C-alpha cells in the first residue's frame, strides 16, 4: 500500500510548503486527534492561481484547479502539525467560491478539492462537504478551502 505522498507523486504533485498566514492566525491547529485548518486560498509559488468571481472573471475549470491547489495547501497545513499525512482522515471540507450572481456550480468547483482528497487518501479521503457561493474572498481569491481532519493511525 502506498502513502499519501507516494500517491501525490504518482499524480505528478507534491505537498507544497505551508502558505504563510495573511493575517493573525495559524495555518492549522491540532487538538488531540483532530486537526483544523485555516481557510486555504490557491497560492502556488507565492501567487494566487486566479482572482475574481467564478462565472465572470474566472472559468469553472480554472476554479476547479484553484480548489485542487487549496486542497494541496490544506495538506501542507495538516502535515505541519502532524508530521505526516499517513493515518490522516479527511472528515469535513468547506469550500467557498467567490461567485458571479448567476453562477450556481459551486459543487462542481468543490470537486477539485474533494476528488484530490479521494485520490490521495483513498477511503480516508471520503468526507462530508459544504460548497458555498460568496461575494468576495481574501485577496480577491476565487476559491478558499478549509478542512477538518482526524489522525487515525
In words, what does this structure look like?
Helix 2 packs across helix 3 (106-121). The chain has helices spanning 4-10, 60-82, 106-121, and strands at residues 28-31, 34-37, 43-44, 47-48, 88-98, 128-134, 143-151. It contains three helices and seven strands. The strands form two sheets. The chain has a five-stranded mixed sheet, with helices on one face. Strand 3 and strand 4 (47-48) form a beta hairpin. The protein has one domain (4-151): 2-Layer Sandwich (60s Ribosomal Protein L30, Chain: A). The mean pLDDT is 97. The chain is globular. It has 153 residues and is α+β, with helices and mostly antiparallel strands.
Task: Classify the secondary structure makeup into a structural class.
Answer: alpha+beta
CATH homology superfamily name: RutC-like
For the record, the CATH architecture stands as 2-Layer Sandwich
| Number of helices, counting only DSSP H or I runs of 4 residues or more | 3
Strand content: 25-35%
For the secondary structure, the number of strands is: 7
Helix content: 25-40%
Number of domains: 1
Q: Which value, in Å, is the CA radius of gyration?
A: 14 Å
Q: Mean of the pLDDT scores?
A: 97
Q: How far do the termini sit from each other?
A: 14 Å
Biggest β-sheet description: 5 strands, mixed
Q: Characterize the overall form.
A: globular
Provide the spatial order of strands within the biggest beta sheet: 1-2-7-5-6
CATH third-level topology: 60s Ribosomal Protein L30, Chain: A
The level-1 CATH class: Alpha Beta
| Poorly predicted segments | none
